[in-house]
Amino acid sequence: MPCIACGERKMINTLTSLTLPYIGRAMQTTYVCGSCGFKHSDLIILENKGPTRFELSVESARALDSKIVRSNSGTIRIPEIGTNIEPGTASECFITNVEGVLNRISDVVSLVKMDAEQDVYERCERLLERIDRMKEGNEPFHLVVEDPYGNSAIIGKDVSVTELDENQARLLQTGETTFDISSGGPGGFMNTGPKRQ
């Protein structure tokens, strides 16, 4: 198979079946180019547990240690700072903690700030200051994880778990892209699964 980085036909694909804590049955795909060393891994979750919302009120530094399991169909929200981490076609699974989620958000805001106009730069600075206070346990906030397939979670004390109904689940992004070869449309391309209408 040709490498997407260098074009040489030295790309090797490996599939590994796994059973992971918090996630369940999964398939890991790994692509490695023997020529340029390009590597890409992805985790495909093979189980669906039903649409679910997890909510955590983070009111102290102790709650920052709560585990966050985000599947490639999971959405993470922090309403107080207007942050939504939604799945896309290149979404990856990860397991971290609340502080790790805040660090990921800080990294993105820092990148935006680098090339921003003055007003956006100042908003980024204020947001980074708030995130620092959150990481220190000095500013309370809520962390919400939603997944139309139930493969994401918050694991810790005082976590609220709610089953989502079909209408709520339909509004969530899934990050899925499929090809429907039975449709007569151009290229037969369409997004499927629960998605924002």
From TrEMBL:
Domain Zinc finger ZPR1-type stretches: 1-156
InterPro entries, per database record: Znf_ZPR1 (IPR004457), ZPR1 (IPR040141), ZPR1-like_arc (IPR004470), ZPR1_A/B_dom (IPR042451), ZPR1_jr_dom (IPR056180)
Disordered: annotated span: 177-197
This protein's record includes keyword Magnesium: no
GO molecular function: zinc ion binding
Keywords carried by this UniProt record: Metal-binding, Zinc, Zinc-finger
SMART domains with a match to the protein in the record: Zpr1 (SM00709)
Similarity comment text for this entry: Belongs to the ZPR1 family.
Name of the featured protein: ZPR1 zinc finger domain-containing protein
Source organism of this protein record: Candidatus Sysuiplasma superficiale
Lineage: Archaea, Methanobacteriati, Thermoplasmatota, Thermoplasmata, Candidatus Sysuiplasmatales
